[in-house]
Write a structure and sequence with these properties.
13 helices, 296 residues, mainly alpha
Protein backbone atom coordinates (compact mmCIF):
# COMPACT_ATOMS: atom_id res chain seq x y z
CA UNK A 1 0.00 0.00 0.00
CA UNK A 2 1.38 3.44 -0.91
CA UNK A 3 2.04 6.23 1.54
CA UNK A 4 -0.65 8.40 -0.06
CA UNK A 5 -3.25 5.68 0.34
CA UNK A 6 -2.12 5.15 3.91
CA UNK A 7 -2.33 8.84 4.70
CA UNK A 8 -5.75 9.18 3.13
CA UNK A 9 -7.33 6.32 5.08
CA UNK A 10 -9.48 7.45 7.99
CA UNK A 11 -8.15 6.85 11.48
CA UNK A 12 -10.08 4.29 13.54
CA UNK A 13 -12.49 5.82 16.01
CA UNK A 14 -11.66 5.24 19.67
CA UNK A 15 -13.96 2.90 21.56
CA UNK A 16 -16.30 4.68 23.96
CA UNK A 17 -15.41 4.43 27.62
CA UNK A 18 -17.64 2.75 30.15
CA UNK A 19 -18.56 6.16 31.55
CA UNK A 20 -19.72 7.26 28.09
CA UNK A 21 -21.67 4.01 27.70
CA UNK A 22 -23.26 4.53 31.11
CA UNK A 23 -24.30 8.10 30.29
CA UNK A 24 -25.68 6.95 26.94
CA UNK A 25 -27.62 4.14 28.59
CA UNK A 26 -29.04 6.39 31.31
CA UNK A 27 -30.09 9.05 28.78
CA UNK A 28 -31.86 6.39 26.70
CA UNK A 29 -33.65 4.84 29.68
CA UNK A 30 -36.63 6.70 31.08
CA UNK A 31 -36.36 5.16 34.51
CA UNK A 32 -32.60 5.65 34.53
CA UNK A 33 -33.01 9.29 33.50
CA UNK A 34 -35.61 9.81 36.21
CA UNK A 35 -33.30 8.18 38.75
CA UNK A 36 -30.37 10.34 37.67
CA UNK A 37 -32.52 13.47 38.02
CA UNK A 38 -33.71 12.53 41.50
CA UNK A 39 -30.18 11.64 42.65
CA UNK A 40 -28.82 14.91 41.23
CA UNK A 41 -31.61 16.82 42.99
CA UNK A 42 -30.88 15.20 46.36
CA UNK A 43 -27.09 15.57 46.07
CA UNK A 44 -27.21 19.20 44.90
CA UNK A 45 -29.71 20.15 47.62
CA UNK A 46 -27.39 18.57 50.21
CA UNK A 47 -24.30 20.35 48.87
CA UNK A 48 -25.98 23.75 48.65
CA UNK A 49 -28.24 23.33 51.69
CA UNK A 50 -27.19 26.61 53.38
CA UNK A 51 -28.07 28.52 50.21
CA UNK A 52 -31.37 26.73 49.56
CA UNK A 53 -32.85 26.60 53.07
CA UNK A 54 -34.87 29.79 53.62
CA UNK A 55 -34.51 29.64 57.42
CA UNK A 56 -32.08 28.39 60.02
CA UNK A 57 -33.05 24.71 60.45
CA UNK A 58 -32.53 24.85 64.21
CA UNK A 59 -33.99 28.32 64.85
CA UNK A 60 -37.26 28.54 66.77
CA UNK A 61 -39.63 30.80 64.87
CA UNK A 62 -41.93 33.35 66.48
CA UNK A 63 -44.77 32.49 64.08
CA UNK A 64 -47.40 29.76 64.38
CA UNK A 65 -46.53 26.24 65.44
CA UNK A 66 -47.67 23.08 63.61
CA UNK A 67 -48.73 25.35 60.75
CA UNK A 68 -49.74 23.81 57.40
CA UNK A 69 -47.78 24.56 54.19
CA UNK A 70 -47.88 28.17 53.08
CA UNK A 71 -45.94 30.64 50.97
CA UNK A 72 -43.65 31.37 53.92
CA UNK A 73 -43.21 27.76 55.05
CA UNK A 74 -43.46 25.34 52.12
CA UNK A 75 -43.83 22.24 54.31
CA UNK A 76 -45.26 23.95 57.37
CA UNK A 77 -43.70 24.25 60.82
CA UNK A 78 -43.11 21.77 63.63
CA UNK A 79 -44.17 21.80 67.28
CA UNK A 80 -41.74 24.58 68.26
CA UNK A 81 -42.13 26.67 65.11
CA UNK A 82 -39.11 25.50 63.10
CA UNK A 83 -39.42 25.50 59.33
CA UNK A 84 -39.81 21.89 58.17
CA UNK A 85 -38.56 22.53 54.62
CA UNK A 86 -35.30 24.01 55.95
CA UNK A 87 -34.84 21.04 58.28
CA UNK A 88 -35.50 18.56 55.46
CA UNK A 89 -32.92 20.25 53.22
CA UNK A 90 -30.35 20.31 56.06
CA UNK A 91 -31.17 16.70 56.91
CA UNK A 92 -30.12 15.74 53.39
CA UNK A 93 -26.55 16.67 54.32
CA UNK A 94 -26.64 14.26 57.25
CA UNK A 95 -28.07 11.51 55.05
CA UNK A 96 -25.47 11.97 52.29
CA UNK A 97 -22.65 12.18 54.84
CA UNK A 98 -23.72 8.92 56.49
CA UNK A 99 -24.12 7.19 53.10
CA UNK A 100 -20.73 8.37 51.83
CA UNK A 101 -18.81 7.54 55.01
CA UNK A 102 -20.57 4.22 55.59
CA UNK A 103 -20.28 2.88 52.05
CA UNK A 104 -16.67 4.06 51.71
CA UNK A 105 -15.65 2.20 54.86
CA UNK A 106 -17.74 -0.88 54.08
CA UNK A 107 -16.51 -1.08 50.48
CA UNK A 108 -12.84 -0.64 51.41
CA UNK A 109 -12.81 -3.16 54.25
CA UNK A 110 -15.20 -5.54 52.52
CA UNK A 111 -13.06 -5.53 49.37
CA UNK A 112 -9.87 -6.18 51.36
CA UNK A 113 -11.36 -8.95 53.51
CA UNK A 114 -13.09 -10.53 50.51
CA UNK A 115 -9.84 -10.66 48.55
CA UNK A 116 -8.01 -12.17 51.51
CA UNK A 117 -10.74 -14.80 51.94
CA UNK A 118 -10.85 -15.59 48.24
CA UNK A 119 -7.11 -15.76 47.60
CA UNK A 120 -5.88 -16.87 51.02
CA UNK A 121 -5.55 -20.35 52.49
CA UNK A 122 -8.60 -22.43 53.36
CA UNK A 123 -8.22 -22.06 57.14
CA UNK A 124 -8.19 -18.26 56.89
CA UNK A 125 -11.24 -18.34 54.62
CA UNK A 126 -13.14 -20.39 57.19
CA UNK A 127 -12.24 -18.01 60.03
CA UNK A 128 -13.35 -14.96 58.03
CA UNK A 129 -16.61 -16.65 57.03
CA UNK A 130 -17.28 -17.40 60.69
CA UNK A 131 -16.73 -13.74 61.58
CA UNK A 132 -18.97 -12.59 58.69
CA UNK A 133 -21.78 -14.90 59.81
CA UNK A 134 -21.40 -13.81 63.44
CA UNK A 135 -21.69 -10.12 62.54
CA UNK A 136 -24.65 -10.68 60.21
CA UNK A 137 -26.48 -12.75 62.84
CA UNK A 138 -27.12 -9.60 64.89
CA UNK A 139 -30.00 -7.41 63.66
CA UNK A 140 -28.93 -3.84 62.98
CA UNK A 141 -31.20 -2.45 65.69
CA UNK A 142 -29.92 -4.89 68.33
CA UNK A 143 -26.32 -4.19 67.38
CA UNK A 144 -27.08 -0.47 67.46
CA UNK A 145 -28.54 -0.72 70.96
CA UNK A 146 -25.44 -2.52 72.19
CA UNK A 147 -23.10 0.01 70.64
CA UNK A 148 -25.12 2.99 71.87
CA UNK A 149 -24.80 1.62 75.40
CA UNK A 150 -21.02 1.65 75.03
CA UNK A 151 -20.27 4.87 73.09
CA UNK A 152 -23.57 6.77 73.33
CA UNK A 153 -25.92 8.01 70.58
CA UNK A 154 -24.30 10.19 67.92
CA UNK A 155 -23.69 10.50 64.18
CA UNK A 156 -20.47 8.52 64.62
CA UNK A 157 -22.45 5.69 66.24
CA UNK A 158 -24.75 5.48 63.22
CA UNK A 159 -21.82 5.36 60.79
CA UNK A 160 -20.08 2.71 62.90
CA UNK A 161 -23.17 0.51 63.22
CA UNK A 162 -24.09 0.57 59.54
CA UNK A 163 -20.47 0.15 58.41
CA UNK A 164 -19.81 -2.91 60.58
CA UNK A 165 -23.05 -4.62 59.58
CA UNK A 166 -22.47 -3.87 55.86
CA UNK A 167 -18.87 -5.11 55.60
CA UNK A 168 -19.78 -8.85 55.54
CA UNK A 169 -22.19 -8.30 52.61
CA UNK A 170 -19.52 -6.82 50.33
CA UNK A 171 -16.82 -9.16 51.62
CA UNK A 172 -18.88 -12.24 50.76
CA UNK A 173 -19.59 -10.97 47.25
CA UNK A 174 -15.91 -10.21 46.63
CA UNK A 175 -14.91 -13.59 48.08
CA UNK A 176 -17.31 -15.50 45.83
CA UNK A 177 -16.25 -13.70 42.66
CA UNK A 178 -12.57 -13.94 43.59
CA UNK A 179 -12.76 -17.69 44.10
CA UNK A 180 -14.62 -18.10 40.81
CA UNK A 181 -11.95 -16.10 38.96
CA UNK A 182 -9.16 -17.90 40.79
CA UNK A 183 -10.46 -21.27 39.58
CA UNK A 184 -11.11 -20.10 36.01
CA UNK A 185 -9.05 -21.54 33.17
CA UNK A 186 -7.34 -18.33 32.07
CA UNK A 187 -6.18 -17.50 35.60
CA UNK A 188 -4.98 -21.05 36.15
CA UNK A 189 -3.07 -20.82 32.87
CA UNK A 190 -1.37 -17.58 33.91
CA UNK A 191 -0.46 -19.05 37.28
CA UNK A 192 1.04 -22.07 35.52
CA UNK A 193 3.16 -19.70 33.38
CA UNK A 194 4.52 -18.08 36.54
CA UNK A 195 2.31 -14.96 36.80
CA UNK A 196 2.69 -13.20 40.13
CA UNK A 197 -0.16 -12.76 42.60
CA UNK A 198 -0.19 -8.94 42.22
CA UNK A 199 -0.58 -9.31 38.43
CA UNK A 200 -3.50 -11.71 38.83
CA UNK A 201 -5.04 -9.43 41.45
CA UNK A 202 -4.81 -6.13 39.55
CA UNK A 203 -5.26 -7.43 35.99
CA UNK A 204 -7.93 -10.10 36.38
CA UNK A 205 -9.61 -9.95 39.78
CA UNK A 206 -10.13 -6.29 40.64
CA UNK A 207 -11.52 -5.15 37.24
CA UNK A 208 -14.15 -7.89 37.42
CA UNK A 209 -15.06 -7.19 41.04
CA UNK A 210 -15.12 -3.40 41.33
CA UNK A 211 -17.92 -2.77 38.79
CA UNK A 212 -20.62 -4.98 40.33
CA UNK A 213 -19.54 -3.89 43.81
CA UNK A 214 -20.01 -0.20 43.03
CA UNK A 215 -23.41 -0.85 41.47
CA UNK A 216 -24.48 -2.78 44.56
CA UNK A 217 -23.24 0.07 46.76
CA UNK A 218 -25.23 2.63 44.75
CA UNK A 219 -28.37 0.54 45.20
CA UNK A 220 -27.62 0.21 48.94
CA UNK A 221 -27.63 4.00 49.47
CA UNK A 222 -31.41 4.07 50.22
CA UNK A 223 -30.98 1.20 52.70
CA UNK A 224 -28.17 3.04 54.49
CA UNK A 225 -30.17 6.28 54.63
CA UNK A 226 -33.28 4.44 55.85
CA UNK A 227 -31.20 2.72 58.54
CA UNK A 228 -29.80 6.06 59.69
CA UNK A 229 -33.31 7.53 59.78
CA UNK A 230 -34.58 4.51 61.72
CA UNK A 231 -31.79 4.66 64.30
CA UNK A 232 -32.28 8.42 64.71
CA UNK A 233 -36.04 7.90 64.99
CA UNK A 234 -35.41 5.48 67.88
CA UNK A 235 -33.02 7.90 69.59
CA UNK A 236 -29.88 5.87 68.80
CA UNK A 237 -28.45 8.16 66.14
CA UNK A 238 -28.36 11.88 65.49
CA UNK A 239 -29.44 13.87 68.51
CA UNK A 240 -31.85 16.82 68.40
CA UNK A 241 -31.79 19.64 67.47
CA UNK A 242 -29.50 18.48 64.63
CA UNK A 243 -31.76 18.14 61.58
CA UNK A 244 -32.03 14.54 60.45
CA UNK A 245 -34.86 12.90 58.55
CA UNK A 246 -35.26 10.37 61.35
CA UNK A 247 -35.37 13.13 63.99
CA UNK A 248 -37.96 15.02 61.92
CA UNK A 249 -40.09 11.88 61.72
CA UNK A 250 -39.75 11.28 65.46
CA UNK A 251 -40.78 14.84 66.29
CA UNK A 252 -43.68 14.67 63.86
CA UNK A 253 -44.89 11.29 65.11
CA UNK A 254 -45.25 12.64 68.65
CA UNK A 255 -47.61 15.36 67.37
CA UNK A 256 -49.23 13.59 64.44
CA UNK A 257 -52.70 14.18 65.91
CA UNK A 258 -52.11 17.92 65.67
CA UNK A 259 -50.57 18.00 62.19
CA UNK A 260 -49.38 15.35 59.70
CA UNK A 261 -47.01 17.69 57.86
CA UNK A 262 -43.81 16.98 59.84
CA UNK A 263 -44.22 13.25 59.11
CA UNK A 264 -45.01 13.93 55.45
CA UNK A 265 -42.05 16.31 55.14
CA UNK A 266 -39.65 13.81 56.68
CA UNK A 267 -40.95 10.95 54.52
CA UNK A 268 -40.78 12.68 51.11
CA UNK A 269 -36.96 12.79 50.81
CA UNK A 270 -36.61 9.14 51.90
CA UNK A 271 -39.04 8.11 49.16
CA UNK A 272 -37.23 10.24 46.56
CA UNK A 273 -33.81 8.85 47.53
CA UNK A 274 -35.10 5.28 47.35
CA UNK A 275 -36.65 5.76 43.92
CA UNK A 276 -33.69 7.73 42.54
CA UNK A 277 -30.88 5.38 43.51
CA UNK A 278 -32.93 2.27 42.67
CA UNK A 279 -33.77 3.46 39.14
CA UNK A 280 -30.23 4.70 38.54
CA UNK A 281 -28.65 1.51 39.88
CA UNK A 282 -30.87 -0.66 37.68
CA UNK A 283 -29.88 1.34 34.60
CA UNK A 284 -26.16 1.19 35.41
CA UNK A 285 -26.31 -2.52 36.17
CA UNK A 286 -27.39 -3.21 32.59
CA UNK A 287 -24.12 -1.63 31.41
CA UNK A 288 -21.53 -2.73 33.95
CA UNK A 289 -22.72 -6.27 34.66
CA UNK A 290 -21.35 -8.47 31.84
CA UNK A 291 -23.51 -11.42 32.90
CA UNK A 292 -26.67 -9.45 32.19
CA UNK A 293 -25.23 -8.32 28.86
CA UNK A 294 -24.60 -11.92 27.81
CA UNK A 295 -28.02 -12.98 29.03
CA UNK A 296 -29.70 -10.34 26.93
Amino acid sequence: MSDATHKGSPAPLPEPSRLALALRAVSGNRMGLLGFGLVALIVLSAVFAPLIAPYDPTAIMVGPRMAPPSADHWLGTDNIGRDIFSRVIAGGRIAMLVALATLSAALTLGLALGLVAGLGPRWLDNILLLIFDAVRSFPVIVFGLALVTIVGPSLFTVILVVSITSIPIYARIVRTQTQALRNSEFVQAEMAMGASLPRILFIHVLPNVIGPLLILASMDVPLVIATEAGLSFLGMGVRPPTPSWGVILNDGYNFIRNSPWPVIGGSIPIVLVTLGFTFLGEALRDIFDPKLQRAS
